[in-house]
Amino acid sequence: MTHLADAALPGLRPILPVPEYDRTSLRAGFVHVGVGGFHRAHQAMYVDRLLAAGHAQDWAICGVGLLPGDVRMRDALRSQDHLYTLVEKHPDGHVEDRVVGPLVDYLWAPEDVEGVVERMADPVTRVVSLTITEGGYAIDPVSREFAPSAVLREELASGAAPSSVFGIVTEALARRRERGLVPFTVLSCDNIQGNGEVARRAFTGYARLREAALGAWVEAHVAFPSSMVDRITPATTDDDRRDLAARTGVHDAWPVVCEPFEQWVLEDHFTGGRPPLEHAGVQLVRDVRPYELMKLRLLNAGHQTLAYLGHLLGHRYVHEAARDPEVAALLERYWREEAVPTLDPVPGVDLDDYLTTLLTRFGNPAVADTLERIATDTSDRIPTFLLPVVRDQLARGGPVGIGALVVASWARYAEGVDEAGGTYAVVDPLSDVLTAAAQRQGREPLAFLEVREVPWSASAVPAEP
Ligand SMILES: NC(=O)c1ccc[n+]([C@@H]2O[C@H](COP(=O)([O-])OP(=O)(O)OC[C@H]3O[C@@H](n4cnc5c(N)ncnc54)[C@H](O)[C@@H]3O)[C@@H](O)[C@H]2O)c1
Ligand SMILES: O=P(O)(O)OC[C@@H](O)[C@@H](O)[C@H](O)[C@H](O)CO
């Protein structure tokens, strides 16, 4: 068994495709916060492709982890020179493995926050990109305004070294302003409608609370492009590690498994330049909105349609639910009757083709995406993916029945007990409140709907009826 940690790339070449470019001379123009599965299957893969084509020497990636659990990613990547294997799984069972190399460093903020701030403030850094989840932006989903939690307010009031993404990015921007440097672009790659605008509101909101003049400078000088990102990337399992080792004889501490499909549509608005991503297959456009609406309302809301009903019917994988004729029929109706009528025309996209491809993607058994993953953090996901469709349909007097059924299936799922009496964990920042309310539904039918908390709130309590 060869360990990716110990292997020299030339030695691996006969076994696995490896980066052919010289990694020692790369400079990290990107600092990425939230190096999980998705970033490594998506943005890092596009940069790898550019580097392989001889572009973008200055656009390697320095990963950053802010949460305590990110120490595992630091250790895994550090042990193998920040290389990892990308495993693409096709529906017919064909598997493509290759080693990916654009990550050149990884900083874990709980150990060295000053190092993270200085890396962002360094002129080499030109884009700070983010995958910090839908709930990471502290934006009220209805008013779309920055709504700082008690923890963020305390961070601001204390004047101590920051630990949140807002505090760290704002401190780095403040240092760039003091040093007369062009600010970096802040690039959200999270699944949020208008993710650029949401990031702008969140980061300028935080900067303004820290210092009004700094907030005005961020507002005036920092670019926050929106982007639509797409590639189904389940969490890595031990089986994935074992299968990779059995196929290749290589042990990788943290490979990434994903589907073959990939899409990145990006608003072309960067303050300090960008790599020629168009050479790697990225669509650079002036207006991302129609692409975002299509993806979030069909794919992500589609996932929500499968998640709770599928689980309650006894399925455990996305492909099982998507291949269940009754669930698939409901999904098809949701798409065509409720979601599609709320979309804008999408340049160059035939929605029938898009939906046909989407059903095949959902039905890909090789990816083995779990319903548990897409049923996680629902209190962030339903407001982001599903409720905008319901609101648009209500405004136009259209149907909302299946959207309502999805919310009802979430309320039933949140009880934490399935139809056969089996229990499971409800993973959500509000799980205590939601599960307690869901379990009261039998005698108080509105209990679940009356929960008014937002997930990032420090003290989650149900609202008074
Ligand atoms: N997995 C996918 O299929 C997929 C596809 C498209 C987009 N995305 C987007 O990427 C995000 C991450 O997905 P993933 O699969 O990589 O998840 P993951 O769990 O593998 O990684 C998430 C990373 O985000 C960090 N993070 C979470 N909350 C944070 C916060 N508040 N502040 C700073 N860091 C935080 C975690 O520490 C971790 O490093 C999703 O929430 C979604 O918005 C995922
Ligand atoms: O990752 P989330 O929380 O935005 O949503 C869960 C899934 O719907 C999502 O990860 C999809 O797999 C992804 O958006 C496909 O591109």
Automatic annotation (TrEMBL):
Record flagged with keyword Metal-binding? no
Domain Mannitol dehydrogenase C-terminal, by residue range, is 287-453
Superkingdom, natural source = Bacteria
Annotated GO MF terms = mannitol-1-phosphate 5-dehydrogenase activity
One Pfam family named in its UniProt record: Mannitol_dh_C
Query: Reaction catalysed?
Result: D-mannitol 1-phosphate + NAD(+) = beta-D-fructose 6-phosphate + NADH + H(+)
Question: SUPFAM superfamilies per the record?
Answer: 6-phosphogluconate dehydrogenase C-terminal domain-like, NAD(P)-binding Rossmann-fold domains
Query: Which GO BP terms, alphabetically?
Result: mannitol metabolic process
The EC number(s) given in the record are: 1.1.1.17
For the Mannitol dehydrogenase N-terminal domain, which residue ranges apply?
30-278
Keyword Nuclease listed: no
* Keywords of the record: NAD, Oxidoreductase
Name the family the entry cites. Belongs to the mannitol dehydrogenase family.
Q: What name has this protein been given in UniProt? A: Mannitol-1-phosphate 5-dehydrogenase
The species is: Actinotalea ferrariae CF5-4
Q: What is the lineage of its organism?
A: Bacteria, Bacillati, Actinomycetota, Actinomycetes, Micrococcales
